[in-house]
Design brief:
One of its GO terms (molecular function) is RNA binding. It holds the Pfam family SpoU_methylase. This is tRNA/rRNA methyltransferase SpoU type domain-containing protein. It comes from Effrenium voratum. With about 300 residues, the protein is of the alpha/beta class. The chain has 2 domains: about 90 residues, 60s Ribosomal Protein L30, Chain: A; about 170 residues, SPOUT methyltransferase, trefoil knot domain (Alpha/beta knot), CATH 3.40.1280. Helices cover about 40% and strands about 20% of the residues. The chain contains 11 helices and 10 strands. The strands form 2 sheets. A 6-stranded parallel sheet has the order 7-6-5-9-8-10, with helices on both faces. Strands 1-4-2-3 form a 4-stranded mixed sheet, with helices on both faces. α6 packs across α7, α6 runs parallel beside α10 and α10 runs antiparallel to α11. The longest helix has 29 residues.
Length: about 300
């Protein structure tokens, strides 16, 4: 098979990869790069964007990268899991492909006046963040606004959950006040999900706004009060058998419903198909992870 380019976890490049994986948002932003892992995901992103480096244990691997580095599988295991050895035994070989790519830069202003915006307020769970971003892309939202207390949308867990759709979605960070100003400047109706809000179907189809900005709040507390008081609060009709909805699912339903109610979507069938595909993918991922979550005692965060 020939010699590996890297065969030790003490290699400086491997130490850098490990720091990028375990480090926070600031560490990744300071270096201007983030990590993507998994052969399929690296290849999918590589169809449109070039990686700086791709690290793989494969004898032959073709990737869109400035440099492809062959690394022993145990070394890549260390990058992904640290000193633990057990995860590697139940992870497919394709997982041991790691790409280092330029960090997408935030925009100061969206290229064209946005009509549909998603604002994410203090979402902490990577799976929820991933589902929200995937749904926003599927429904062709114009952009997303994060506040500084959200989980890093470019952490490897979120990129895995969202299949790295963030590369195709303009984004920026904003405080509550900046979000209010942004919505007013573009004539957007600020909306938020709330159990105390009016039923979504009672929302007028014409509000005098150019579009809307949906705020999805944190799993534990919802939308922060200083922002919520400026929002049109809407609620979802739910069966008495259901106590609450996962924040990512609730946000996705609201995104779809608002595009139908306020967005003037040219074809409702297209919108339904897009949303159904996003939810189908999420449910598939959820089923695959269900046994792991139950074993770990992970609770399901909720919004409603």
């Amino acid at each position: 098979m020939g010699a590996y380019d890297i065969a030790s976890i003490r290699n400086p490049a491997i130490k850098e990869l490990f720091r990028l994986r375990v480090g926070g948002r600031r560490a990744r932003a300071a270096r201007g790069v983030c990590l993507v892992h998994g052969k399929q995901l690296v290849q999918s992103i590589g169809e449109f964007f070039k990686f700086r480096e791709v690290y793989t244990h494969e004898a032959q691997g073709v990737y869109n990268a400035d440099r492809v580095v062959r690394v022993q599988k145990t070394v890549l295991q260390h990058v992904l899991f640290g000193p633990k050895e057990e995860p590697a035994k139940r992870v497919d070989d394709d997982a041991f492909v790691i790409g280092k790519i330029d960090h997408p830069q935030p925009v100061e202003e969206f290229d064209s006046p946005p009509k549909w915006l998603l604002a994410i307020d203090k979402i902490k769970h990577p799976e929820n963040m991933g589902l929200l971003l995937s749904t926003a892309v599927a429904l062709k939202f114009d952009g997303v606004v994060f506040n500084a207390e959200c989980v890093d949308p470019f952490s490897y867990k979120v990129l895995d959950a969202s299949q790295a759709v963030a590369w195709t979605l303009p984004y920026r960070y904003a405080t509550s006040q900046q979000l209010l100003e942004l919505s007013r400047r573009h004539g957007l109706l600020l909306c938020a999900g709330s159990t105390k809000g009016r039923p979504l179907q009672d929302l007028p189809t014409s509000t005098g706004h150019r579009g809307f900005c949906l705020v999805v709040g944190s799993e534990a507390e919802g939308v922060q009060k200083e922002l919520l008081q400026h929002c049109e609060q809407v609620s979802l009709p739910m069966s008495e058998l259901v106590e609450s909805l996962n924040a990512g699912v609730a946000g996705g339903i609201l995104m779809h419903s608002l595009t139908m109610q306020l967005g003037g979507f040219a074809s409702k069938h297209v919108a339904v198909a897009c949303f159904a595909a996003a939810v189908q993918q999420w449910l598939l991922d959820l089923c695959l992870r269900k046994s792991t979550h139950l074993a770990a005692g992970v609770s399901t965060p909720s919004l409603f």
